[in-house]
Amino acid sequence: xxxxxxxxxxxxxxxxxxxxxxxxxxxxxxxxxxxxxxxxxxxxxxxxxxxxxxxxxxxxxxxxxxxxxxxxxxxxxxxxxxxxxxxxxxxxxxxxxxxxxxxxxxxxxxxxxxxxxxxxxxxxxxxxxxxxxxxxxxxxxxxxxxxxxxxxxxxxxxxxxxxxxxxxxxxxxxxxxxxxxxxxxxxxxxxxxxxxxxxxxxxxxxxxxxxxxxxxxxxxxxxxxxxxxxxxxxxxxxxxxxxxxxxxxxx
Length: 251
Ligand code: MF3
Ligand code: CO
What we know:
Elements: H1 8-31, H2 38-51, E1 55-56, E2 68-72, E3 75-77, E4 91-100, E5 103-112, H3 117-135, H4 143-156, E6 160-161, E7 167-169, E8 176-180, E9 197-205, E10 211-213, E11 220-222, E12 228-236, E13 243-244
Antiparallel strand pairs: 1-4, 2-4, 3-11, 4-5, 6-9, 7-8, 7-9, 9-12, 10-11, 12-13
Helix pairs in contact: 1-2, 3-4
Bound molecules: 2-amino-4-trifluoromethylsulfanyl-butyric acid (MF3) and cobalt (II) ion (CO).
Residues 106, 168, 199, 201, 232 line the site of cobalt (II) ion.
């Protein structure tokens, strides 16, 4: 099996891939306004990726041809960008991945268009769960330590982790082993080694964790129509601290 630990040359390319993904995520999130369509936000991301010399990682998924997945409100992941225009009450997630010289990085974030205390609380919990999970991405820990940290934050905040969708290794391809669930027991699963590259994902819902595939055949949405949230960063496991490759703003 190919080693999951990257050497310094490979990490250099992954860093460039990650910077490109972060810049594209930032641009598309900033473009999202009332009256802008999902397809327009997708195009902003696509143009930034090409401008920085990257390519669309999602094109490596059979049948998919967009730069991003865009999901709103009760949608959770894998939303195909459509001509739907954003409205003020939307909760919007942008998920995108870049491939640069054969190296993939993956990231996602969720934002609001207008202030809403309940939705802000929901998003704060997801973002904190992501940083708590990333803090566990250190050598000597196991995948379950990341999973457990995510689960603890999401559930202590009163929300639920989606069980059927998970984070993953990332690098030579978009999805590689190991799977990284947002739930699990401390000390369980694959042992983490410095240099492993992981896409850590917090995929959660305000209500029940059950999701279903919608009629378009791509988008997962919550069964109870409660809000879905998504936060994802690609990181390198470190000896003392993980390195975040796709940070699009200071935490
Ligand atoms: N970023 C998504 C994930 O890792 C993958 C989306 S693949 C697509 O979960 F084809 F649906 F875009
Ligand atoms: Co992913």
